[in-house]
Amino acid sequence: MHASTTAAGTDRISRGAWRAGLSLLLCCVLNACDSTPRVPDHLRVVGGDPAQGERLVTRYACGACHVIPNVKGANSYVGPPLNMFGRRTLIGGHVPNTPDNLVRWIMDPPSIAPRTAMPAVGVSRDEARHIAAYLYTLR
Amino acid sequence: MSESRPAMERRLASHTPLSEGEVRLRKAWARPAGIGILSEVNNTVVGRYIIVTGFAFFLLGGILALLIRTQLIVPENTLIDVELFNQLFTMHGTTMMFLFAVPIMLGFAVYLIPQMLGSRDLPFPRLSAYGFWCYLIGGLLVFGSLFIGAAPDSGWFMYPPLSSLPYSRGINTDIWLLGLSFVEISSLVAAVEMIVGILKVRAPGLSINRMPIFAWAVLVTAFMIVFAFPPLLAADIMLELERAFGWVFFDATRNGDPLLWQHLFWFFGHPEVYIIFLPAAGMVSMIVATFARRPLMGHTWVVMALIAVGFISFGLWVHHMFATGIPRLSLSFFSAASMAVAIPTGVQVFAWLATLLGGRPWLKPPLLFIYGFLFIFVLGGLTGVMIALVPFDWQVHDSYFIVAHLHYVLIGGMVFPLFAAFYYWMPLSSGRMLSERLGRWVFWLMFLGFNISFLPMHLTGLLGMPRRVYTYPAEMGWNTLNLISTLGAYLLAAGVLVFIIDVIRHHRSGEPVVHNPWNAGTLDWLAPVPFQPWTFFSVPQVHGRYPVWDQAELPGEVDRGEHFLADAPAEQRETLITDMVSAKPLQVLRIPGPTWLPLIAAVITSAFFLAAIAHLYALALVIAAVVLVIFIGWAWMNARVPPVDQVDAGNGVMLPLYLGGVHSHSWLGLFLGLLVDATLFGSLLFTYFYLWTAWPDAWPSAPFLEARLPMVVGLVLLLASSAAMAYAKRANQRAQRSGFWLGIITAFVFGVAFLIYLIPLFARADLDPTRHGFDASVWAVMGYHFFHVCIALLLAGYSMARVVVGHLTPRHDTDLRNTALFWHYTTGTGILALLAVFLFPF
Amino acid sequence: MHNGWQARTSNRALGRAAALVIAMLSTGCGSLEGIQSALQPQGISAQSIATVWWIMFWGACAILLLVMVLAIYALRRPKPSRLGHPYLIIGGGLVFPIVTLTALLTYGLSIGHEFHGGAAAPAPLRIEVIGKRWWWEVRYRNGPSATPIVSANEIHLPVGVPVEFAVSTSDVIHSLWIPSLAGKIDMVPGKVNRVRIQADTPGVYRGQCAEYCGTQHTWMAFYVVAHTPDEFEAWLANEQRHARVPSEAFLQRGRNAFVDAGCGACHRIRGVEQAFGALGPDLTHVGSRRSLGAGTIDNHVGTLAGWIADSHAIKPGNLMPPFAAFDGETLRALAAYLESLQ
């Protein structure tokens, strides 16, 4: 939720191996998550890294409008919840849910659906690929 | 040293044929069977009720703490929503401070003090029972509010205006203010009871310089309660008046001042910390001596230190307000005072160290907990010195550093000694030992869990995390620290769980003991365990600080009835009143046995508070009248003319059954009650002056206050009535019936005239308590005084009635003495009130 | 400045060493750094407090060690020790604390004067911060008589000079706390408290309300931006300007939506006649701020839209009602308009 201005305050939780292990353990306990679900081939995003995408979702504060599983502070129902996004048929009720469409949608939703409330928030193409890759892991 | 175990058992076995005296004693002290046990007022029963209730609230408060820690285990957690979280931390603080820490320590005092001082009960057993029932009902009421979602949520120190009506609309805050006022009654009652008990009801020979440290600690604590609780009570009443009727005390928009609350609250709140700690420190001194197997080193030093802490603790309250923008000069004063309190505490710590070094320590579970206490408490004391430094406090005030500090001081200073006390004194109540092996588990789980949980919080605070936040952003560098704190809290809770298992287990299969398992030296270990209600078959004559060590034959003598009161000729409960300093026997005090009166009175009192919470003020007034009637009826049973003047207290010592006037225990009790009342009155007067200092330019006046006549008339009436009352008292002593009637009726008439003259004047005056802090504080001061005049009139009527039926005679004049005391006190406060209201500011 | 730097470096070295100890004690923890850390001071006030902390920290460690060594020694010796003597009580409990506490108190009273200003010359810049449930109004005043420039939830100040903060509240008690720069000062109804705060290093720091103030005490935060003096003057000059009047049709649509929905009853935008309200933050330059909801969430067109539509999903219990009646495109236009108010 609070990202851009907080570089100096980045928690160093990832520095020590044991700490990473502890947080992983905690993550598993709290979320009962198994490892990242398999994404079908037709939803593979070229050049997209889900892990980076998850961080970007936090950085762009997508949670201001969407409920996103396991993303802290993403509790809003202004836009549709993004759980099970990998199973969604249409994006924004407008275009088929394909990697290309999704990347375009993330970068500039009004270019696809002029009446949508979702604005372009300045996501670059590379970033959009990561975010798309992350969203497809939500199944 | 005490006699050996086999000798002890032989003696008990040989004791089987009961003497006639012992039959009567058993009958007098018999506990009611079945549900009737709830009507028992004896200290061994009531003390245990309080301890068990206090421990239950400790567990409930602990569960709230675990919920809080679980919410904070990860950043931006959504487990608990903000509304509930705010209720949880408010109730955690409230429960731990008001419903656990203070009452359980007083519970230990009620349970242990009579035994430790070689007496059979406290002087006002029904009053302790009333206090307990108030505490239980009030505690359930306050805590129960969580389950209806109406728990207080303004933080346990309830700062207005957050707790004022505009920002706290529901009944949440009313429950806190009224419910806790109700609970505070029990603490005040217990404090008065303890002072009278410790000063007047000791074994012959247990002179004040031989008194055990725990009794000293409780004595100092009780005096602190007398002076610390009334300001909070006054603040509660004023905030409730502001919430319910719009009277202005704390509302800055109408010339009140929210900082007034902070002064009154912390004038209570800081001594409160020592009220919790000092009895625990007293326990530590007892346990250290036993397990070092030698008398406490520096006994007198420790007593002086306890008294010094008691005094200094009233001069520190502003250190909770260093960030409120108070002038720098007064900050420096309070900074110095806050550091000074470390000195007497240091004296105690080094007295314990010297005792341990000079003895042969025996590391049993109680001492293990004392060692844990030493580490944690000393660390908490050191951070306390740090935050006494004003600039450092600006930085860490209201941060997690403070959360860490206060838990180090309170859990270290109170909970660890409490668990030491459980392991130490449990055999008195159950006659069985708690497990040593489980005790070590309990200790290490609690000790490690506590430090893992709270040590990192110092750093969390320095890294900028404020207290009382329901969550925190992920990028602040606080995540790992919070995770560790939460895991530590679970470990601490596991320790408490093992303790509960041990307690349950020991009731069935704990090793049974008969007498003094730790080879301790004080009177609490003199009698065989578990305690009988009368504790000592005869009340011992003692010659030293550690009678069980010093007088080898004492246990046998006491149990053979060779000391005092080894009989109950009238089949009534009796104990000895002794001289406050030398503990020379003065009186045989007959004390009441089982009665339902305290429970009934407490239930009806609770109805008053419930009605007030529900804003049913007319009903509340009716109930208040009923409560008053009950108390008058209660008093009516006391201080009767005894059937015989003197009785044989044992060994041919003849003692009176009745001591009148200033020598009576009820006179001392009333005197202490008036100290409480005077502190409350002082708080209202302080309010009046304080609001003037806050708004000197906006301080209005009422025209009739400019005229001096009403003040002069009021003063004359008060003084004249007091003189008449003094005359009535003297005439009664000289058995001049007509003089008595003349005096008391004159006093009564003057009192009534005072009310009839002044109340309409104030009512007609242009004083609107909802308009300005001036109006409200004038009404608070004068209203409080008018109420006292009414009570004084009631007492005069009561004394007249007692004379008519013959319960009050020239020699048995306690009621009249008490009435006169109250009357003169009312005159005194009235003079202060009138001078302040009419003459200030000049 | 040079001395300050030296103090800071030696302080850092001390800090690192102590960090190691704390890290071991608390079984490993994060660093001492952070945008809200009292242990990474960026102003003289926080600096002197951090120094006194490290002195007290080492002193406390030594005393605790001494007490525990004595206590444990008592258990591990064959017969009573000569240390168990009343002299120990007098020396350890009376003489030692009197000496150390007097020294500490003398030192403590000598620091911290810069925070309360003392007799120093009037600070050139005064910033008034008014606590509200649950955000901060910030007013900049150049000289006592100048009309204030009103902003919210972000405090900008120039480095190297003391700035006078005059803090007050319009409802309950709040407390202004910027750990990187100084200690905290309460905002009490009926009072104006004045302190001086100086930042020495340009950068962005975070502050937070420290006095529990009700439902959203947690998310009552703010950013402090310390500029070089030139940057600050430029920033202030921009902040003084009225809001930009949009020329693009889409932004005009957003502006109209703002006016039509009555947002101006609570929010002020200088230059927009219908936006005069004072209940909520001044939005004249809202697009230039780092966060929304007083440090709750990063500020951009997307979060603006989400905040307007349902701020309660982001900051539960805050006093702005949700506005669910906008159609999608209008909501987007409104957010874009607010973002354009740089």
Helix and strand topology:
The complex is a heterotrimer of chains A (139), B (842) and C (342).
Chain A: H1 17-31, H2 50-59, E1 90-91, E2 95-96, H3 99-107, H4 125-136
Antiparallel strand pairs in A: 1-2
Helix pairs in contact in A: 2-4, 3-4
Chain B: H1 5-13, H2 20-29, H3 43-71, H4 82-116, H5 125-144, H6 172-200, H7 213-245, H8 258-292, H9 299-312, H10 328-340, H11 342-358, H12 365-388, H13 390-396, H14 400-430, H15 436-462, H16 479-509, H17 547-550, H18 554-559, E1 573-578, E2 585-591, H19 597-613, H20 617-636, E3 646-648, E4 654-656, H21 665-694, H22 703-706, H23 709-733, H24 737-764, H25 773-805, H26 814-839
Antiparallel strand pairs in B: 1-2, 3-4
Helix pairs in contact in B: 3-4, 3-5, 3-16, 4-5, 4-6, 4-8, 5-6, 5-19, 6-7, 6-19, 6-21, 7-8, 7-9, 7-21, 8-11, 8-14, 9-11, 12-14, 12-15, 14-15, 15-16, 19-20, 21-25, 21-26, 23-24, 23-26, 24-25, 25-26
Chain C: H1 2-25, H2 44-75, H3 86-110, H4 113-116, E1 125-132, E2 135-142, E3 149-152, E4 154-158, E5 163-169, E6 174-177, E7 184-187, E8 193-197, E9 203-208, E10 221-227, H5 229-240, H6 249-260, E11 291-292, E12 297-298, H7 301-310, H8 328-340
Helix pairs in contact in C: 1-2, 6-8, 7-8
Quickly list its features:
heterotrimer, A: 139 residues, mainly alpha, two-stranded antiparallel sheet, disordered N terminus, C: 342 residues, alpha+beta, five-stranded mixed β-sheet, three-stranded mixed β-sheet, 8 helices, 18% strand
Description:
The complex is a heterotrimer of chains A (about 140), B (about 850) and C (about 350). With about 140 residues, chain A is an all-alpha fold. Helices cover about 35% and strands about 5% of the residues of chain A. Chain A has 4 helices and 2 strands; from the N terminus they run ααββαα. A two-stranded antiparallel ribbon of chain A has the order 1-2. Chain A is globular. Helix content of chain B is about 65%, strand content about 0%. Chain B has 26 helices and 4 strands. Chain B starts with a helix and ends with a helix. Chain C is about 40% helix and about 20% strand.
Level of helix content of chain A?
A: 25-40%
Percent strand of chain C equals: 15-25%
Computed over alpha carbons, the radius of gyration of chain A is 16 Å
Shape of chain A: globular
> What's the pLDDT, averaged over the residues of chain A?
80
Q: Name the poorly predicted regions of chain A.
A: 1-18, 31-35
What topology, given as strand order, has the largest sheet of chain C?
3-2-1-5-8
Number of helices of chain A: 4
Strand order of the largest sheet of chain A: 1-2
Q: Characterize the quaternary organization of these chains.
A: heterotrimer
Question: How many individual β-strands of chain A?
Answer: 2
H and E order of chain C: HHHHEEEEEEEEEEHHEEHH
The general outline of chain C is elongated
How many individual helices of chain C? 8
Structural class of chain A: mainly alpha
Protein chain pair with the most extensive contact, residues per chain: B-C, 93 and 90 residues
Helix content of chain C: 25-40%
- Topology of chain A as a string of helices (H) and strands (E): HHEEHH
Average of the residue pLDDT scores of chain C: 88
Q: Mind summarizing the main beta sheet of chain C?
A: 5 strands, mixed
